[in-house]
Amino acid sequence: MMKLKLLSYNMLNGFCGDNPPFVVDTKRMRAGMKILHQAKADVVGLQEAFIYPFAEHTTAYTPFFTKLYLSQYIPPTYFRWGPVTLSRYSCTFRDVSTEQCKCLETVVRVGKKKLVVWNVHLHHAIADELRAVSVQALLLASKPDVILGDFNGGSLEDRYDLKQLLTGFSRFMKQGARTKV
Q1: What are 108-153's pLDDT values in tens digits?
Q2: What sign does the CA torsion over 36, 37, 38, 40 have?
């Protein structure tokens, strides 16, 4: 049996503000890099990675990724909502995106075994029904072993109470939960 640790992490505009000039929040970037370093995940699916030559922070985390991960795929045609996949193992990558669903298929090879991982980021401004149709269309073409990502599911009526979310997370994690906000 192959055991791998997988992590999915939405970077939220690549640690940048939401509008040009896309200024980096360095405190948030350092915290995110610390999470990735401490997690010691074998495969990481990043969403909203926003890694482009014109983004000032690219030079900050590209060497970091290279140091931790043997294989990385940064799609050259995505804007800020695109997924990036990193792996400590040898991989092949294939972009299987549709208009409404950015999706990277990664085949991770460990010895003679392989694991097919999808890293998806569904468009935030579409109805849940269209999200489901987008994923179903992808599933007709391929069958992943694991799907990581940001499905942007939810309701416009959702009200997020940070204290309640952190309390629920702590209960879920029991003694292992540590929150820093």
Answers
A1: 999 999 999 999 988 777 777 888 888 888 888 888 999 999 887 7
A2: positive
Cβ atoms < 10 Å from Cβ of 143: 9
Calpha distance 174→171 (Å, rounded): 5
List phi, psi (to 5°) of 82.
-75, 150
Q: What is the mean pLDDT of the chain?
A: 77
Write out pLDDT tens, residues 62-84.
677 777 777 777 665 555 567 88
